[in-house]
Structures are given as C-alpha cells and as structure tokens.
Amino acid sequence: MLVAATVTLVFIAFSVPLALLLREVAGDRVVTEAAQDAEALSAVVATADRDTVRASVERLNAVSDHPITVFWPDGSVLGADAPRSDAVELAATGRSITAEAPGGREILFGVQGLPEGTAVIRAYVADSDLTEDVGRAWLILGVLGLALLGFGLLLADRLARLLLVPLAELSRVANRLAGGDLEARAQVSGPAELREVGAALNGLASRIQDLLVAERERVADLSHRLRTPVTTLRLEAEALSDPHERETIESAADGVQRAVDAAINAARSPARGDPSCDAAAVVAERIEFWSVLAEETARECRTDLVAGPLMVGVGADDLAAAMDALLGNVFAHTPDETPFTVRLRARAEGGAVVEVGDEGPGLPAEDLAERGRSGGGSTGLGLDIVRRTAAASGGGIALGTGPDGTGTVITVDLGGPGDRHDPRTTGAAPGSRGWLRGRG
Questions:
Q1: Where residue 11 sits, what CATH number does that domain have?
Q2: How far apart (Å, rounded) are the C-alpha atoms in residues 65 and 72?
Q3: Of 5, 90, 208, 344, which has fewest CB within 10 angstroms of its CB?
Q4: What was the pLDDT predicted at 228?
Q5: Tens-place pLDDT, residues 32-45
Q6: What is the dihedral of CA 364, 366, 369, 374, to 10 degrees?
Q7: pTM
Q8: What's the rounded Cα separation, in Å, for the pair 269 and 258?
Q9: Which residues contact residue 244 at a Cβ distance below 8 angstroms, ignoring those fewer than 6 apart?
C-alpha cells in the first residue's frame, strides 16, 4: 500500500503537468502549420493578380487540412467561404493576428502594397484539430503509469517477502517456544540482520532447553534423595506401639512419598497437553484429609460445595497441592479453635471458584498480598503454589477480608479445561479487590 500510494502520487505529480503540456504542444503544432500555409501564400498575394491568387488558394486548400481564405481589398472573397469578422477588419490595417472564432481559431495576415489596398489571408483551425491525437497521447501516458505502478508493486512484493516471510517464521517459532515446544527452531534465512536474529533465537531456545533439562535432573536427583529418609520414617512408624500414632505417621509418610513420586514424574516427563480434573472430587477429598487435623485443634470446618463433576483446567495433583496450601495457611496463621469455611461453586463461563475463609485475626490490607508468599529462603510453598495453579488454568487469586471486616478470605478462580493461559501473563479479574493473576 505504501509503494502504491507513493508511485501514484509521483505519477500524478509528473503526469498532470505532462498531459497539459502535451495538449499545449499539440495545439501549437497545428496553429504553426496553419500559419505556415497562410504565410506561404503571402508572396503570391502581394505580387500576382487576382486569378493567379484564386488558383493558388484552391490548390492549397486541396492539400491542406486547414481552409484558407483571402479577403481581397475590394471586398471579394477567394478560397474557402468565411465571414468577415472584426478580427479580419483589424488585420486589414496591415497587422498579423490570431483570434478566436466560432468553433475554432483564425490566423490572419495583412498583405499591404496592393493597388486596391490591403488584402487579408485567413487560415482557420477548428477546435477538434487543436486537440487531435491528444487523447491517444494521454492514453499512452496512462498505460505507462499503470505499467509503472504494476512494476512497483511487483518489486515491493518481492522485497517485502524477503523481510516478511522470515519475520513470520520467527514469530511462529517464538510462539511455539512460548507454548512450551522447545524443539521449535527457526530457519535462518532472509537478510543478514534477520539471519542473525534467527540464529540468536535458535541459540536462546537451545539454551533454555539445556537449562530446563539440567533443572529437571536436579529436581529428580533431589526427589530420589528424599526417598531414603521417607523410607526410614516409614520404618520408624512401624516400630511404634500406638496404632493411632503409627497410622497417622504412615499416612503422612505415604503423602510425602506420593509427592516425591509426582515430583520425579514431573521432572522426568513434563506434562503435555491440557490437564483437567473434577474440582468437586479433589476439594472434597482434601477437606476430608484436613478435617482430622481440624478435629484435633477444635476447629469447626464449614463446607458449601457444589455437586460434581466440575471440570477445571488443572491436574488433580496440582489442585490438591493448591488446596493443601490454602488449608495449611489457615492452620498456620490462625489460633486453634478458629472456624474456617470452604466454598466451591461453578463459574458461568466454565471452571470453578474455590473460596477459603477463616475467622481469625486477619491481616492488614498491605500485608494481605504477602500472606503465604515464598521468601528468599522458602521452598516455594504457600500462596505461590496457588497462584501458579490458578494462572495455569487461566484464572487468578484474590485476597480479602470477611464480610464483617475480620478474618481472611482467599478466592481462587480456576478456568475450564479450554481456558489455560500462559502463566507468565498477568491481568485483573473484574470486580475483585486485590486480584493477583500469574504472580508467584
């Protein structure tokens, strides 16, 4: 479009004056030819008699495209019939002029020295003769302009492809890398600058892949190392004489073992595709797990759970870890005997909303966003887990206080199976105070 606009403007800037010039040149050429024919007759009119002049005018009219007329001093007319206009009377004074006439233009020459007085030679040029061949010249000029425009567009298209095709390829590769496809590589092509960018992008992708592989190996190695103390803990639990304590410790050891196995699997085989689970089943299962500790600490656990299935865009293990972080915060940040509430409802657009609230002392507004946040020496537990889980599903979390201004309420928005977002993106959910999306 830029090249088309530029070529069109340049063509108009040159063609309009050129077209006007062609019309002027064509008119001047015709007038000059008629004037030459009339002027060539001047010598005959000045020296010959009337009959000779009449014969000369008739021969000239037979070969000329412009009718020639001679107004004899006695008032007679020789040659082509023409009216005696005011311009003819003016030329009879011995002047040579060009004047407008009905339907054209007349070129007049006064010839003095005749015995009877001054004769006037008139050559008439019609308006159609003044613009003869101008239309064809304009047509040729227009065809040349269209050819120039077409050539400019073709050249611009070729040049643009040299830039846009490699740029589009780089964009596709970058989007694939952002989507988790670390095997994507760009074809190094195009101008030198784009080839350099493509090579840098490929190097970045390789570096990211190497770093992730090394990180997975470290996590897997750490997970393997944790298996030995977990096994020792289970053996120690079997040696306990109190069945209740043995069952409690064995259950905890099994939970740690499951978490270790999940970490190993996640490190060795990162999840592909779009995971999903039934939020109603997972939330109910985690509430049942934490209800034992709630009974031991004299906490009333109130629940308001919608009936399942209620599918969300996160895996069951991730959602369970997020629920453990939420409920663990309640037990860690409120005194014993503090009631808490867990609500689960469906979203109109798909997914679910989990709300965990307690009636504890609460936190100041400026500290709400820091509750449960991982510190510099943290292992990554707390609300960071919840934030990452919510962001991965296309949702987020909001921290606030209870309806009466006391306690703490944490609302987790979970998107549906088809709503998964890039967890690096951030945004704000409408109508939610303190909404945090994709942080952590």
A1: 3.30.450.20
A2: 22
A3: 5
A4: 72
A5: 888 888 888 888 88
A6: -90
A7: 0.43
A8: 16
A9: none
